[in-house]
């Protein structure tokens, strides 16, 4: 009986619509399955790695059906639930499955080459050589060996060092020692060690080792919850019986993390996996220690600072079916939703309001919180969203009953919320009472804290020394050569830097317009604050935490540990210091320019400003001492600042919900933004106007624009945006279809080859 022909639909890591179908050679029938990594020919000469999405027997209507070249790995790399998530993401975020695949899988898995030669694996198993005694010697035998080595003192030193490092005891099991450690500690060249191996006294053995931290953690029992924490946890468990998502609204320092830890313990006991999402890498350094203290080696971390080789090992540990060897609890940033979970029981999205959960470039432009809720749904798992300042959308979903809701409105141990002081910078400048960028109120609070050996955080959401340099004679400002933004002055690098394209230039010595030599740095960033604080408080130990000081893999952990261990008195930073960090000796927080956040042209600016100020404030006074927060502003009567003063989240929510309802913004409508880029401004204007008119013929006044955004040019590409607002009762999928068809028509127009179009759903 002839064997049935089989075909595989393949997802390729390319921005192409749909899946490609290949025939499966009979020899591969038994190993070809959904999720398996395969090598396929694309075009005339290229070989790419793809993932099998589906195996079937329906012959495609194609002139040429190419066969799969080979199976790269018979064990599925991707599990069924991941494929479901990829398909949902591609449809919802209006991108291709290939783009999702490229974001989801560590790049090292993508093998490519040409049809003329073999394609080799990039992942290499790490091996380490261990040294041990060739046989179990008695003490007498060892004495005899040492007497024979009298004429070879270097070999004797190596052997002595080995016995010391291995804690040698006659008759006990022989312990191996790493070759590199043995050579380092003995201070010998490898020749002496090789001679001992040749003589049969020592032996070497190569062992596969992990690149990941693998120390044995001494685990501790869980902390007993307070009565209010216990009742909130029971409420969450109760609501999980009939709801899949629960919002935990807990004020800063209320002890949300301890509740998460008890919920994690419950899932691990059931043999389930848990995903714990955080918005920033900086947060993982502090929380991973708390989790490993209770859960030990089943806890793993995943973020972008790992190398490709390390990411492969983490991927394999998550996919590991042996529960004793694999990761059961993953702590990670947004890309962790793509890991190969097999039996997820709980997803925790901490600081769920945070903008860092949204991916902007490249596609898929997904929101990790919403994607995590979908992932949990595919696993029939539960999701808990936690925040002291929930997003307006999530809080609205909880108030309408779509999500469950639990509130924790007291700080752990009855610690008082910080006292908030408003410092009027306009008045202080008028009375000439400002010292550099610091008001008397802030300097006084810092002086008192340093006198009591307490710690301080200063928040300024702009890195660099000065946002721009200006000519006082004619007002010339140095702009980026590729982007429509001013270059930022970075004093430590002695460079002007564009924060959008990364272009660097020397600091100009004269004006580029009138040739005047007296250029002045304007404004201030974290680097300038650091400089000036060292002058104002010369004996204080000062550090800075921003994108410039945290480029290294372990730089976050190092700065946070130094602050925890009181080796830093004053920490200056951008928004990465505002989130979820817990320092017992921190009592003063200074917010240096609240107005710059409030006056940003974005419908979420007031919500984000409230969240940022409230979150930064929440870092102060988290133990028995009441903290103090000084907010420096030129507008102390601002409505949002007054709400922060009272820690009034519900007031902020009511105000924002009312405004958004009037002007039709989320959560009262859905939004899709279409971004068009072209190097020729005239062509861009023409294409964007055509697309907007085409969309209006179907969607009427739901289409806004085209308009130039705040920054109208990046990397020599001019930019225009079109915003589409879709009321809740209208079909989102039907609207997306109209948008994609309109984009398809414009792509066929003459001259559209230089046009780039990106679609951002829920921008």
Q: Structural class of the secondary structure composition? A: alpha/beta
Helix content: 25-40%
Distance between the termini: 57 Å
Mean pLDDT: 90
Task: Based on the coordinates given, report the CATH architecture of the largest domain.
Answer: 3-Layer(aba) Sandwich
Q: What is the CATH third-level topology name of the largest domain?
A: Rossmann fold
Describe the global form: globular
* Largest beta-sheet characterization: 7 strands, parallel
Provide the spatial order of strands within the biggest beta sheet.
Answer: 12-13-11-14-15-10-16
CATH class of the largest domain: Alpha Beta
The DSSP helix count reads 22
What is the total tally of β strands? Answer: 32
Overall domain count: 6
Residue share in β-strands:
15-25%
| CATH superfamily (homologous) name of the largest domain | P-loop containing nucleotide triphosphate hydrolases
Radius of gyration: 30 Å
Q: Which parts are unreliable, with pLDDT below 50 for 5 consecutive residues or more?
A: none
Annotation keywords:
763 residues, alpha/beta, GIY-YIG endonuclease, Rossmann fold, 6 domains, six-stranded antiparallel sheet, 22 helices, 32 strands, 33% helix
Could you give a short description of this structure?
By secondary structure, the chain is of the alpha/beta class.
Explain this structure to me?
There is one protein chain. This protein is an alpha/beta fold and 763 residues long. Helix 1 crosses helix 2 (97-104). It is globular, with a radius of gyration of 30 Å. It starts with 6 loop residues before the first strand and ends with a strand. The model has no long low-confidence stretch (mean pLDDT 90).
């Amino acid at each position: 009986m002839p064997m049935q022909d089989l075909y595989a639909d393949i997802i390729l890591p390319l921005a192409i619509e749909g899946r490609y179908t290949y025939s499966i050679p009979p020899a591969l029938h038994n190993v070809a399955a959904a999720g398996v990594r395969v090598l396929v020919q694309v075009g005339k000469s290229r070989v790419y790695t793809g993932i099998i999405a589906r195996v079937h027997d329906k012959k495609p209507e194609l002139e040429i059906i190419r066969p799969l070249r080979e199976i790269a790995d018979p064990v599925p790399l991707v599990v069924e639930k991941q494929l479901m998530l990829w398909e949902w993401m591609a449809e919802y975020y209006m991108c291709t499955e290939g783009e999702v695949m490229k974001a989801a899988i560590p790049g090292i898995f993508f093998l490519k080459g040409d049809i003329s030669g073999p394609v080799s694996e990039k992942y290499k198993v790490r091996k380490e050589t261990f040294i041990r005694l060739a046989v179990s010697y008695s003490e007498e035998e060892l004495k005899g060996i040492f007497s024979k080595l009298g004429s070879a003192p270097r070999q004797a030193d190596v052997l002595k060092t080995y016995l010391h490092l291995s804690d040698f005891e006659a008759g006990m099991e022989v312990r191996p020692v790493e070759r590199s450690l043995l050579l380092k500690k003995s201070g010998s060249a490898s020749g002496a060690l090789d001679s001992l191996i040749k003589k049969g006294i020592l032996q070497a053995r190569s062992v596969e080792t992990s690149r990941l931290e693998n120390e044995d953690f001494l685990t501790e029992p869980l902390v007993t919850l307070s009565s209010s924490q216990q009742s909130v946890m029971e409420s969450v468990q109760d609501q999980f019986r009939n709801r899949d998502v629960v919002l935990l609204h807990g004020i800063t320092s209320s002890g949300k993390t301890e509740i998460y830890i008890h919920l994690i313990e419950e899932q691990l006991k059931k043999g389930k996996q848990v995903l714990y999402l955080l918005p920033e890498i900086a947060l993982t350094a502090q929380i991973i220690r708390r989790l490993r203290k209770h859960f030990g080696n089943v806890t793993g971390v995943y973020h972008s600072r790992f190398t490709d080789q390390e990411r492969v090992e983490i991927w394999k540990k998550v996919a590991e079916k042996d529960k004793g060897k694999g990761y059961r609890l993953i702590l990670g940033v947004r890309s962790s939703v793509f890991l190969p979970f097999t039996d997820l029981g709980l997803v925790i999205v901490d600081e769920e309001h945070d903008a860092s959960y949204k991916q902007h470039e490249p596609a898929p432009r997904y929101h990790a919180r919403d994607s995590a809720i979908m992932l949990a749904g595919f696993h029939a798992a539960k999701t808990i969203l936690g925040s002291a300042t929930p997003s307006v959308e999530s809080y609205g979903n909880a108030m309408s009953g779509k999500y469950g809701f639990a509130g924790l409105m007291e700080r752990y141990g009855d610690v008082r919320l910080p006292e908030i002081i408003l410092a009027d910078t306009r008045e202080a400048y008028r009375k000439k009472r400002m010292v550099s960028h610091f008001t008397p109120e802030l300097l006084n609070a810092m002086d008192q804290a340093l006198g009591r050996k307490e710690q301080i955080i200063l928040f300024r959401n702009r890195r660099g020394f000065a946002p721009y340099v200006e000519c006082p004679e004619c007002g010339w400002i140095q702009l980026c050569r590729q982007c429509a933004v001013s270059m930022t002055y970075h004093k430590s690098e002695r460079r002007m830097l564009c924060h959008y394209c990364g272009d660097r230039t020397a600091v100009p010595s004269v004006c580029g317009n009138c040739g005047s030599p007296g250029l002045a740095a304007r404004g201030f960033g974290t680097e300038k604050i650091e400089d000036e604080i060292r002058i104002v408080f010369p004996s204080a130990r000062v550090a800075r935490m921003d994108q410039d000081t945290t480029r290294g893999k372990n730089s976050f952990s190092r700065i946070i540990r130094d602050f925890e261990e009181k080796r830093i008195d004053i920490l200056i930073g951008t928004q990465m210091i505002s989130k979820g960090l817990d320092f017992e000796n921190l009592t003063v927080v200074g917010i240096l320019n609240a107005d710059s956040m409030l006056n940003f042209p974005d419908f979420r600016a007031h919500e984000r400003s409230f969240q940022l100020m409230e979150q930064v404030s929440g870092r102060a006074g988290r133990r028995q001492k009441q903290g103090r927060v000084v907010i420096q502003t030129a507008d102390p009567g601002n409505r949002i600042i007054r709400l922060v003063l009272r820690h009034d989240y519900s007031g902020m929510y009511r105000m924002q919900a009312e405004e958004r309802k009037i002007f039709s913004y989320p959560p009262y409508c859905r939004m899709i933004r279409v971004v068009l880029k072209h190097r020729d401004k005239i062509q861009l204007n023409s294409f964007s106007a055509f697309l907007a008119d085409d969309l209006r013929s179907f969607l009427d006044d739901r289409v806004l624009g085209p308009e130039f955004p705040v920054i109208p040019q990046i990397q020599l590409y001019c930019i225009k945006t079109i915003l589409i607002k879709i009321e809740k009762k209208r079909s989102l999928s039907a609207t997306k279809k109209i948008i994609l068809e309109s984009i398809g028509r414009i792509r066929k127009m003459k001259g559209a080859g230089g046009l780039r179009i990106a679609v951002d759903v829920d921008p």
